[in-house]
Amino acid sequence: xxxxxxxxxxxxxxxxxxxxxxxxxxxxxxxxxxxxxxxxxxxxxxxxxxxxxxxxxxxxxxxxxxxxxxxxxxxxxxxxxxxxxxxxxxxxxxxxxxxxxxxxxxxxxxxxxxxxxxxxxxxxxxxxxxxxxxxxxxxxxxxxxxxxxxxxxxxxxxxxxxxxxxxxxxxxxxxxxxxxxxxxxxxxxxxxxxxxxxxxxxxxxxxxxxxxxxxxxxxxxxxxxxxxxxxxxxxxxxxxxxxxxxxxxxxxxxxxxxxxxxxxxxxxxxxxxxxxxxxxxxxxxxxxxxxxxxxxxxxxxxxxxxxxxxxxxxxxxxxxxxxxxxxxxxxxxxxxxxxxxxxxxxxxxxxxxxxxxxxxxxxxxxxxxxxxxxxxxxxxxxxxxxxxxxxxxxxxxxxxxxxxxxxxxxxxxxxxxxxxx
Length: 421
Description:
- The chain is mostly beta strands.
- It is built from five helices and 19 strands.
- It has a 19-stranded mixed β-sheet that branches.
- The protein starts with a helix and ends in a 21-residue tail after the last helix.
């Protein structure tokens, strides 16, 4: 009896595989690459209202349904860059799982963008070149008795070796990202309107050109695990870690009313493994080129909160403490190393208080206390105001400022801080 059931089960499985294989062959025969390209291109152009170019489109049906597009190019809006594409990519891969559809689950097994190049432009009025692509109209409520909406899960989203350029014509700022990589997973529960997102975004070889000066050689990374509640319009940040060069800061907390002009923040901020050496190494190349031989040591800690609305000219209240212990700085430009650096800084809203900043260089010592008020500026024309007190028990000026040898060159001209009085 058992052998009979084994034979029946094997026959059923074999029949299913034959049906699946036959269906796959039939679909690929009905939709060869050229026909798919002819069918897909006008649909995309109508939906996007942009010119679309496709080199090749293939249907994949092995262990699921999917589509692969090679050589996709989408034009920009004529008012922005008529001769340059808005986006182009070498390959687009989409794979879906079929069996979860029987349980009203849309599972995207894989979504991959290979070598995408995206050009984002903001014009003189602040309008973006992609604003026409994200305009939406509210969906009508589902009729009574309608089945529950599909739950959506994105198992793996990847961007491989992307490029990004951003041009702000209002400020004359241009930012270019030489390498962009991203991994992301999403789990969308349509019944509860909650989405869980986690992943990593890596930016390398970032360069910024501004009228005030240029920056280059910036690397950054963003790691996140966030829950988005579309019904409550709330973001819950389980962890959001921002790393710039070698400096990492982690945020946790929530954002309420993210769809409003001034969402309300309730965030906690903490540093992770920050040192004075990493801080100096994080200075962009154009700013650090003259200080390439600087070596530094010392532990930095940061802890604080960011609370309140942001937007429409409003800033949240920032409260934080920043400490430095056992700091040392060495450089060929210094006659003596700066040692025993210690500082305690407190940020309380618009005021920065230097409770202590001390250090030694050779036989000399220095202690600084003070405040910086109106830290973020204020009404038009207002600037931060610095009040400080310097004290020393002993200063050896000959040691701190040794005589300059003849022909050693002139000192650099003094350049005052433009936004501090």
